[in-house]
Amino acid sequence: MSPTISSSLCTVAALSGRPGRRAGQPGGNKRAVAQPLAAAAVTEAPPAVIAPPPRPVIGAPRRRGGRGVDGGPDELVAWKSIRQERWEGALEVEGKLPTWLDGTYLRNGPGLWDLGDYGFRHLFDGYATLVRVSFRDGRAVGAHRQIESEAYKAARRHGKVCYREFSEVPKPDSFKSFVGQLASLFSGNSLTDNSNTGVVRLGDGRVLCLTETVKGSIVVDPDTLDTVSKFEYEDKLGGLIHSAHPIVTDTEFWTLIPDLIRPGYVVARMDAGSNERQFVGRVDCRGGPAPGWVHSFPVTENYVVVPEMPLRYCAANLLRAEPTPLYKFQWHLESGSYMHVMCKASGKIVASVEVPPFVTFHFINAYEEKDEEGRVTAIIADCCEHNADTSILDNLRLHNLRAFTGEDVLTDARVGRFRIPLDGSPFGELEAALDPEEHGRGMDMCSINPAHLGKEYRYAYACGARRPCNFPNTLTKIDLVEKTAKNWHEEGAVPSEPYFVARPGAVEEDDGVAISMVSAKDGSGYALVLDAKSFKEIARAKFPYGLPYGLHCCWVPRDK
Ligand SMILES: CC(=O)/C=C/C=C(C)/C=C/C1=C(C)CCCC1(C)C
Ligand SMILES: CC(/C=C/C=O)=C\C=C\C=O
Ligand SMILES: [Fe+2]
């Protein structure tokens, strides 16, 4: 049985992010009771291995994601499931860690892609995996744990996918259960809470893991990596999906909630220490039939930038059991691409311009361009832009990632720089901010010095490419003024997002380190610390086993 159009309509009702209204169906958007999801605690110092290094969950035949039994000896550890319910241990340090580096680097990502003999097919489906490295006095302690989401616990209990993941849908055992599934989709109950995408430290010190579903917001303890509780949004804004990358500062949290019924986006903010999002304003889409995917968005000091990509959510694809080439999305070139600018203080739209088509997961930063009198004339917004080519989504299927043959199959990407004029002009510009050859035409997973968030900035850190490759395989430091890049590369290694940590007392924008986690070719894993100025290696802290690839990270300073 295939889903009907009328059921799609019910779904979009449930997916509405309209302020002041609850999701459409009975029980929709009902708040779950806050409860600790895991009680186990990891012992504190002295650092010691409290569980043996894991046996990766890779021996089973894969029905979906892999190339068959075992995946072969040449399969990179980056794409292997490494189940670690609870591990902590001192790491061997090669080189010299700066003694000022005092705090915890915490990375989240979908590091577990196998359930018994069933292999997930897409990178984004994997169950959330936290890896941390705590630095102190030139030493490093690592830890690794799965997030105890309802989706993960149910999958472990039943040995199968029980919630709707990025590309996976639970298999109905019978017609009755299929009907039940549709009903729970309308209410949002069947959507995953597998918070495998981002991790942020809120202004009040809580550490929050996120994905694209609102219910997938989970508070974790950055020391023990315990799953502490669901993060309950105590407001009436509703919405079942949101941007996976809120903008977080010491005082606030900005988020975007797409509205799939009346295509548009709700912009909301939350004070540090609060769980209540407040409605700031609404942007109506200029193209249709649904809002563009908003994995992330940028802000400036005074404005929120709302991107409207032609890669749009698609209710019908949401209902399909088998993934389409664009998963839950559809490409609507004819709908146009737009950038909207909302005033943070008033919620009013101050610009809405048409721009060339684009595809991006990640905005890097944005700032206000001013004239000699200090008047804001335009907004500059930078992103990792995939040359308006959606095939990057399919490249990230595990089968493709595991099947590198030496052929150069990574599609090109660039630092896409938007210029959004504030003088009422109908069009904005989009151009490469530097020659993409500088970073091997690979570009994603970016960070900046957080002190420059929303302000003029010069440096971005990201993953780039050394070709041939099938996935970004370098770390790159982009100089947006000189329009050059410095690149770090190790043969066969898969590094994750380089995260900038400033040296205490630093004045210069790049005075600090960039930290990344590397899944090495020989099956090992280590945290890599680069001097952010020279982009040269200072030290590496080695795990006693290999690490799966991971996505985003944050920094938790000690005693803050
Ligand atoms: C890991 C990453 O970058 C993205 C993950 C995206 C997810 C889990 C998206 C999930 C979704 C659903 C489960 C249903 C609604 C649509 C959508 C937000 C794509
Ligand atoms: C890992 C990735 C893209 C790599 C291609 O260049 C995108 C991840 C998106 C989610 O956070
Ligand atoms: Fe992301």
UniProtKB/TrEMBL annotation:
Keywords: Dioxygenase, Iron, Metal-binding, Oxidoreductase, Transit peptide. Its cofactor is Fe(2+). Pfam families: RPE65 (PF03055). Residues 48-71 are annotated as: Disordered. GO terms for cellular component: chloroplast. InterPro entries: Carotenoid_Oase. Fe cation binds at H245, H295, H362, H552. The keyword Transit peptide applies. One of its GO terms (molecular function) is carotenoid dioxygenase activity. Binds 1 Fe(2+) ion per subunit. One of its GO terms (biological process) is carotene catabolic process. The keyword Signal does not apply. Belongs to the carotenoid oxygenase family. This is Carotenoid cleavage dioxygenase 8. The lineage of its organism: Eukaryota, Viridiplantae, Streptophyta, Embryophyta, Tracheophyta.
